[in-house]
């Protein structure tokens, strides 16, 4: 997991061959307007999923993992908590679905709070429960999840 702000994205460009393109697209979208629906930046190798929702109470049965994609979860506005854990320490709830690229797990974890302008890079082996309330009340979230092919 990497947590940082868009201002420091250049530090991570060499971590993955598609990261620079992902962060360049994200910076451009922040300057020129964020689309409301999926954008294929580089076909199935790199795409963006803009989202709007209200955060929810933490559900210990909703941790997800992926095998085909790294997530870059960027908060445009609002504040949300993402809970993280190692799936080896968790109960498998839904086996991996290769068509939808997810498996679901149950358990507890460590909370990371993201604010506007911050992102979390999540590797396929990291179980995460996104969209959780950052405090006692729900928060309206505008977010972009960029999927980066492994």
Characterise the protein shown here.
With about 150 residues, this protein is mainly beta. The chain is about 10% helix and about 50% strand. It contains 1 helix and 12 strands. It has one helix at about 20-30, and strands at about 1-5, 40, 45-55, 65, 70-75, 80-85, 90-95, 100-105, 110-115, 120, 125-130, 140-150. Strands 1-10-5-12-3-2 form a 6-stranded antiparallel beta sheet, with helices on one face. A 3-stranded antiparallel beta sheet has the order 4-8-7, with no helix packed on it. The longest helix is centred in the first third of the chain and has 14 residues, at about 20-30. The chain is globular and about 40 Å long. The mean pLDDT is about 95.
What is the topology?
Blueprint: E1 2-5, H1 19-32, E2 39-42, E3 46-54, E4 63-65, E5 69-77, E6 79-85, E7 91-97, E8 102-106, E9 110-115, E10 118-122, E11 127-132, E12 140-149
Antiparallel strand pairs: 1-10, 2-3, 3-12, 4-8, 5-10, 5-12, 6-9, 6-11, 7-8
Describe this protein with a few key phrases.
six-stranded antiparallel sheet, three-stranded antiparallel sheet, mainly beta, 150 residues, single chain
Total of DSSP H or I helical runs spanning 4+ residues: 1
Class by alpha and beta content:
mainly beta
Shape: globular
Amino-to-carboxy terminus distance = 15 Å
Assembly status? single chain
Alpha carbon gyration radius? 15 Å
Elements, N to C (H/E): EHEEEEEEEEEEE
Strand order of the largest sheet: 1-10-5-12-3-2
Percent in strands? over 45%
Helical percentage = under 10%
| Strand element count | 12
Q: Average the pLDDT over all residues and give the rounded result.
A: 95
Which stretches of 5+ consecutive residues score pLDDT under 50? none
The biggest sheet, with number of strands, parallel, antiparallel or mixed sense and barrel status, is: 6 strands, antiparallel
